[in-house]
Amino acid sequence: MDVTDEALLSSGFTPSDLQKIKNNVESYGGTLEEAIQDLANRFRVVIWVTSSCLMVFIILVLFSAKETVVGGGISILIAIVIVVFIQPPVLSYKSWRFWIKSKG
Questions:
Q1: Into how many domains does the chain fold?
Q2: Does residue 1 surpass a pLDDT of 70?
Q3: How confident is the model at residue 103 (pLDDT cuts 50, 70, 90)?
Q4: Domain that holds residue 74
Q5: Mean pLDDT value across the chain
Q6: In the chain, how many H helices and how many E strands?
Q7: Residue 87: exposed, middle, or buried by beta-carbon count in 10 A (0-12, 13-18, 19+)?
């Protein structure tokens, strides 16, 4: 796959987004393509964690007491917020979208 500045800009990345990714590549090594793939993988992880948390919440609603549902719901919400904001959510989504479009 050919990951270029022009391809990224045409797929929805802003110049600021592109600069952030390039700064990361310069600081930690690697290529632009590897950085985009890593960000796309992070987005997939967020989707899996969120889906798993929602499944646990559904099980809580179906089989637990009211107090457990409230406490569990709050803790699951906090866990989702932490997982989402550990990584850059907008950049990872744009990278995932770019990766899917360019793969297919």
A1: 1
A2: no
A3: confident
A4: 5-103
A5: 92
A6: 5, 0
A7: middle
